[in-house]
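Example 250.
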Amino acid sequence: MAVTIKSDREIELMRESGHLLARVQNGLADMVKAGMSTYEINAIGEKLIRDLGCIPSFLNYEGYPASICVSVNEEIVHGIPSEDKFIKDGDIVSLDAGLIYKGYHSDCARTLIIGDATEEARKLTEVTKQSFFEGIRAAKAGNHLYDISDAIDRYVTPFGYGIVEDMTGHGIGTSMHEDPMIPNYHQDEKGIYLQPGMTLAIEPMINAGSREIKISDNGWTVSSADGSLSAHYENTILITEGDPEILTMI
Ligand code: MF3
Ligand code: CO
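Predicted structure in complex with cobalt (II) ion:
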């Protein structure tokens, strides 16, 4: 499938979709506390999405059984909410959420620091977030797609962290996953030209230790193979003639 360029009308719908999802993530960040189960977090997130008149895009996606991916500590992405899994003080909790508004998808993830986390956990979380901002500095019309990948890699690698390679960012629009795939590490080619009207989900996933992953017996939850902490930060952005616009922040 070709990379889509959104019309002005579509951009406005993507913007509204993104702003609604930002409200969901902000609501979750205010409410998630030590002692909650990951199931409760999913229930709160799903209600926030539905109360805004939107559809949770993750629910039943390829059989995924929840609306919010809740990935704790060494879990990278796609953690399945469970009534038996409780958030503890000092955990880092990655919340990935997606919604559909008038047919347009937005997708956004945050790693939350719960209470009194270690310096290692806080630094990993901050570097992962900052790597997204380094990446989008390169997300300008006329640059190439893999300038984004390179910028993330150049920023993260000196910390000695493992950039997850098995999962990538992606185009987004009337589907959650559109072309192109957006790796978070150096590519030997340049990739396509970035053009105004492209909407992209950029989502570095960074392990404190090795980049290697393992997949749980549940078929979904992806964790660091060495058990090291992992963080995730994602926004849906719009390529413009000037600086990119972050659609999933308000
Ligand atoms: N946010 C994820 C992505 O960018 C999608 C979650 S997978 C799902 O690919 F199965 F939970 F939907
Ligand atoms: Co995504």
